[in-house]
Write a structure and sequence with these properties.
Number of domains: 1
Radius of gyration: 16 Å
Strand content: 15-25%
Number of strands: 8
Order of helices and strands: HEEEEEEEHE
CATH class: Alpha Beta
CATH topology: Peptide Deformylase
Largest sheet: 5 strands, antiparallel
Shape: globular
Strand order of the largest sheet: 1-2-3-6-7
Distance between the termini: 38 Å
Helix content: 10-25%
CATH superfamily: Peptide deformylase
CATH architecture: Alpha-Beta Complex
């Protein structure tokens, strides 16, 4: 397989909704295996297909304690319960972290790489990673869940690494959609949701 480039904000593909996979064929599996290699190469916990330029509903997850990666196709979150505040990072917003609200636990459904239906109840790191990656498929970044007064924090080299959730940490997930823009916040010099003229996704709230 191959290691692919991970798109960085404000690349427009990160703001587009991925398409449903109609058939799990060799092309889809090649993309999924490339995503696993790319995630591992970046020391991530998860990755969504649009982060490598593929507008397909495919995500990969590998928790630190797991030996094998999980491949999920057409993933969806069918139930969310509770809320908690967690620190989160992203391989497409490299070098920064922020606090977001995620669920205490979720119910999740997808197909695996063998076309088998997977249903599970997830919490903690797995829940957070699944929410984060499903968000990606809908054009949502974790910064969209930050409160208006909150700012991204630059990760210093000596800092403990915050799992870029495409590197993981703590629990949770969600689901929505959208597209692009490229202005910058003068304080962080990074695109932030309040810089986006659309009435989404910065104004969206987790249910």
């Amino acid at each position: 397989m191959a290691v692919r480039e991970i798109l960085q904000i404000p690349h427009p593909v990160l703001r587009q909704r991925a398409r449903k996979v109609r058939a799990i064929d060799d092309d889809i599996l090649r993309i999924a295996y490339d995503m696993v290699d790319t995630m591992r190469n970046a020391s991530g916990v998860g990755l969504a297909a649009n982060q490598v330029g593929e507008l397909l509903r495919v995500i990969v997850i590998q928790l630190p304690e797991e030996e094998e990666a999980r491949i999920y196709i057409n993933p969806e979150i069918t139930l969310r319960e509770g809320e908690r505040r967690v620190e989160e990072g992203c391989l497409s917003i490299a070098g920064y972290k922020g606090m977001v609200t995620r669920s205490l636990w979720i119910r999740f459904r997808a197909l695996d790489h063998t076309s088998k239906v997977v249903k599970l109840r997830a919490e903690e790191t797995l829940s957070q990673a699944l929410e984060h990656e499903v968000d990606h498929l809908n054009g949502i970044l974790y910064t969209d869940h930050m409160e208006a007064h909150e700012k991204l924090v630059k990760v210093e080299p000596e800092d403990e690494k915050v799992p870029d959730l495409d590197e993981g940490d703590d629990s949770h997930t969600d689901n929505i959609e959208d597209q692009p823009h490229t202005s910058h916040n003068p304080e962080s010099d990074l695109w932030l949701p309040e810089d986006d003229p659309r009435n989404t996704p910065a104004t969206l709230k987790l249910k």
